[in-house]
Amino acid sequence: MIEVHPAPVEHYGWIAQRANLTISKGFMAIGAYAADGRILGMVGYDGWTPNSCCMHVAIDSPIAIRRLRRPAFGIPFLELKKGLVLASVLSTNKNSLRFVAGPRGLGFTQIAGIRDGYEPGVHVMLFEMRRENWDGR
Predict the structure, then answer these.
(1) Which of 37, 45, 51, 101 is most exposed, with the fewest beta carbons within 10 Å of its own?
(2) Do the bridges between strand 2-6 and strand 28-34 make them parallel or antiparallel, or are there none, so unpaired?
(3) How many Cβ atoms are within 10 Å of 41's Cβ, its own excluded?
(4) Is the entire prediction scored with pTM above 0.85?
(5) Which domains does the chain have, with CATH numbers?
(6) Residue 48 — pLDDT band, cuts 50, 70, 90?
(7) Cβ-contact 56, 46 below 8 angstroms
(8) Other beta carbons within 10 Å of 83
(9) What would the pLDDT profile of 51-76 be if each residue is shown by its tens digit?
(10) For 25, how many CA atoms within 13 A lie in the half-sphere containing its CB?
(11) Dihedral class, residue 59 (left if φ above 0, else alpha if ψ from -120 to 50, else beta)
(12) How does pLDDT run across 77-124, given as a tens digit for each residue?
């Protein structure tokens, strides 16, 4: 059995390491946990504005995303009434690019790319999900 609930602050290092994040003030996360307490996946949020936030996802188990998908978008769209969620992915991270925007992924739309935005030759790809485009799953 997998349960999803707010991640305690002491678990933030898990997503920070996997998603190459620096945890900043205002960061919050939810996690998918195995019955034995192991973290199977997390979704974190930061970069808050009046109408948006940035989403970060790290998954160690494919089943975790099925459990996290609805609450991951439900928090910003339904609970916090945000109009859009942003995500950034390095151009070298092909799995994450497919996961974020692929047909079987989260459904984000690519909106821009920052050439050499991470380091020379590694671009930062920017994605958005608008509340009106979220399918609710």
Answers:
(1) 37
(2) antiparallel
(3) 26
(4) yes
(5) 2-133 (3.40.630.30)
(6) very high
(7) yes
(8) 14
(9) 999 999 999 988 888 899 899 999 99
(10) 0
(11) beta
(12) 999 999 999 999 999 999 889 888 877 788 899 999 999 999 999 999
